[in-house]
Amino acid sequence: MLVDTSTLVRTLQVRHPQYETVARAFETLIARGRELHIVPQNLFELWVVATRPASQNGLGLSTTEAAAELMRLKSMFPLLPEPPAIYPVWESLVIQYRVAGKPAHDARLVAAMLVHGLTTILTFDRTGFSRYAGIEVLHPADVST
Q: What is the pLDDT of residues 83-98, one digit of tens each?
């Protein structure tokens, strides 16, 4: 299972209302024996949000703080490699599904999932990933104990 960046970002925001939902979902899924993975794209996206000023919908972390968060996440979740096969799969997806603009980032996560044989993504974005055939979208709130 891939953990979406939106879910990872909540782990940096202890006071956010969704923080506990994410923590519970991680705990429950791991207890059930589910493997939770991340890919480099997650870390690129997280860095952008983490270091962007709060006034611009970011977290306003310093680069030192953001680097520490990357290390924390890499210690929590296996980081899958980024093989060259991801690009042609991504290109095929954006053409097939007529993906335009920012959702192309999500298509790249889906491409990485397909290359690595993953079929489920843990995300707050119920609709962004549902367009892709064979991808199960799991919202953290839907992970029951």
A: 999 999 999 999 999 9
Residue 4: DSSP 8-state:
P
Instruction: Quote the radius of gyration of the chain (alpha carbons, Å).
Output: 15
> Would you call 95 exposed, middle or buried from its count of C-beta atoms within 10 A (0-12, 13-18, 19+)?
exposed
Distance CA 24, CA 11 (A): 11
Helix axes 40-51, 63-76, angle to 10 degrees: 150
Q: What is the mean pLDDT of residues 100-127?
A: 96
Task: Determine the average pLDDT of the residues in 50-60.
Answer: 95
Range of the domain at 52: 2-142
pTM over 0.85: yes
Which CATH number is 53's domain given?
3.40.50.1010
**Phi and psi torsions of 16, nearest 5°:** -70, 140
Domain count, the chain: 1
Burial of 94 by CB count in 10 Å (0-12 exposed, 13-18 middle, 19+ buried)? middle
